[in-house]
Amino acid sequence: MKLPSGQQRVLKAVAEMVQEGLSPTAHDLTRLLGLRPQTLRQHLEALERKGLLRLHPAGHGRPTHLELTPEGLLVAGTAIPLVGRIPAGPLEESLEEAEGLLALPGRPGLFALVVEGDSMAEYLLEGDVVVVERGPRPRRGEVAAVLHQGRTTLKYVYLEGDEVVLRPHNPAYPTLRLPAGEVEVQGVFRFLLRGREALEVLKILRRL
Question: Does residue 101 surpass a pLDDT of 80?
Fold first, then answer.
């Protein structure tokens, strides 16, 4: 989402305060950014209308508290969406419902998936969270999330002419050879977070 510079500056300031564990108020931003209260109010109301921010007035003479929405966290680049699960085994139905947000620095195109299955073991284990990037073409042998006939899998990808070869890490699983026109690369593997249970303990996973 493209924002005017003033709104972008305000959203960034709110996000930075949230990352520091603070509960930002309109009064805090007035002092921090050196804006007139009326100007700041216009920016905040515009961000609220766009669904990026919630304003919580505390009554006359008291500061208005500010809350980033999930969309606001994403636009501010302070979160990565966890969009579902991906089998690292036989091709299975992909779940595309967003489950939450990873409170990690993000950028457009990044999204996270929970690994299911063991075809990529010992490299990727069931319950791991992988962050992939939508858009780039995978280099030969890179791990990627690929879609084929409505089903998604996570494999090493080799583009060979008019075919795509999908290879597992676990030798107990077969290599798949599919027509290139029937395969869509959904995202290229970027990094791994080991174990969803650890994420919940560390409170990295934020529910939507």
Answer: yes
Q: In Å, what is the CA distance from 159 to each residue of 33, 97, 174?
A: 50, 29, 17
Catalytic residues: 119, 155
What span, in angstroms and rounded, lies between the C-alpha atoms of 32 and 12? 12
For the chain, give the secondary structure using H, E and C.
CCCCHHHHHHHHHHHHHHHCCCCCEHHHHHHHHCCCHHHHHHHHHHHHHCCCEEEECCCCCCCCEEEECHHHHHHCCCCEEEEEEEECCCCEECECCCCEEECCCCCCCEEEEEEECCCCCCCCCCCCEEEEECCCCCCCCEEEEEEECCEEEEEEEEEECCEEEEECCCCCCCCEEEEHHHEEEEEEEEEEECCHHHHHHCCCEEEC
Question: Where is mean pLDDT largest: 9-13, 122-126, 149-153, 198-202?
Answer: 9-13
Sign of CA dihedral 29, 32, 37, 41: negative
pTM attached to this predicted model = 0.76
